[in-house]
Prior knowledge:
Elements: E1 3-5, E2 10-11, E3 24-26, E4 33-34, E5 47-50, E6 56-57, E7 69-72, H1 80-85, E8 93-95
Parallel strand pairs: 1-3, 2-4, 3-5, 4-6, 5-7, 7-8
Amino acid sequence: MASAEIQAKIINKKAFYHCYSLKNFVIPEGVTTIGDNVFERCGSLESINIPASVTELGKDSFRSCTKVKVTVASGTSITASDLSKAGLSSSQYTFE
């Protein structure tokens, strides 16, 4: 699976855990929660945009995703601290 797109409000815990072939993921506006460990060990994951509708980012959501670059939409309540708890280093994310 090179890319995926969903249409739900919550991405449940470990939904894409260890899905190594996942490269890109589209989180549509309207999603409010990204659960714990959702993308953990998705080693090929390169990019994700987090829309302003996301208000909860689970622990270790991006753990062991060393290639990923995350863009966080302006207007979101997600903070740098939330992104750190999700397993991202400061070089892996940007705020629009």
